Amino acid sequence: MPEHLPIILHHFDESPFSEKIRLIFGLKNIAWTSVRISRIMPRPDLMPLTGGYRRTPVMQIGADIYCDTQRIIRELEHRFPAPTLSSDRGEGLAWASAMWTDKSFFQNTVNLVFGSLADKVPQSFIEDREKLRGAKFDIAAMTAAIPQMRDQYRAHVGWIETQLAGGHPWLGGAAADLVDINAYMNVWYVRSNLAVADQLLAEFP
Predict the structure, then answer these.
(1) Given this model, what pLDDT does residue 4 score?
(2) How many CB atoms lie within 10 A of CB 75?
(3) Is residue 193 part of a domain?
(4) What is the CATH number of the domain that holds 181?
(5) For residue 129, is pLDDT > 70?
(6) Strand ranges in 53-159 using DSSP code E only, listed in sequence order
(7) Do both 120 and 31 map to the same domain?
(8) In whole angstroms, what separates CA 118 from the centre of its chain?
(9) Per residue in 187-203, pLDDT tens?
């Protein structure tokens, strides 16, 4: 990559998917520039760059704009192959792990976090996420489902605990990789938002 092309990440601090990319920057020792965006629309400076794509984060390198976290990760791995993000157990496992962490695990995490925050969630945020999802962002339903979501979240974290209990320092083996980054996102999001996170995670040393 030419030295004169800086890497710019458009993100906001609380974004769990942005946290993935920030971790990869650190893991690969990549220099980057931060452009903080609003948690909700409008984003008048960013939208013209993305052609209307409104999820977070977005990576910019020169005139190239990279949307979607998976696409950003693949580009970073291509440009900065060492250290690799692939697990000791194979590249396929590293990439496939997002199907777990970004879908079922993340859905449990979101429901648990926002159900617990309840009336602390701004109405403007709720309306913004409803436009993004094309469906109701039902805080009341999330709150009612807290016991179920807590148990399911504990099951996900239990899988992490079981894997780490095998004696390896990281989920994929001897070094941190994409499996760890993907899984960590959901632990980070709970720790960042819930005062009861330590209590919730106490059984998973």
Answers:
(1) 64
(2) 15
(3) yes
(4) 1.20.1050.10
(5) yes
(6) 58-61, 64-67
(7) no
(8) 21
(9) 999 999 999 999 999 99
* 75 and 96 housed in the same domain: no
Instruction: Read off the tokens for 180.
Output: 């760890």
User: How confident is residue 84, by pLDDT bands cut at 50, 70 and 90?
Assistant: very high
Tally of domains in the chain: 2
Asked whether the beta carbons of 73 and 61 are under 8 A apart, the reply is no
The encoded tokens of residue 54 equal 């409104």
Question: Tell me, what's the pLDDT at 1?
Answer: 44
Which residues 6+ apart lie within 8 Å of 45 measured at CB? 37
Residue 166 lies in a domain: yes
Q: Which residues of 172-188 are buried (b: 16+ CB within 10 A; e: fewer)?
A: beebbbbbbbbbbbbbb
Distances (CA, A) of 52 to 42, 56, 129, 162: 11, 12, 15, 41
Give the CA distances from residue 39 to residues 84, 92, 95, 110, 122, in Å, rounded to whole numbers and listed in that order: 31, 32, 27, 15, 11
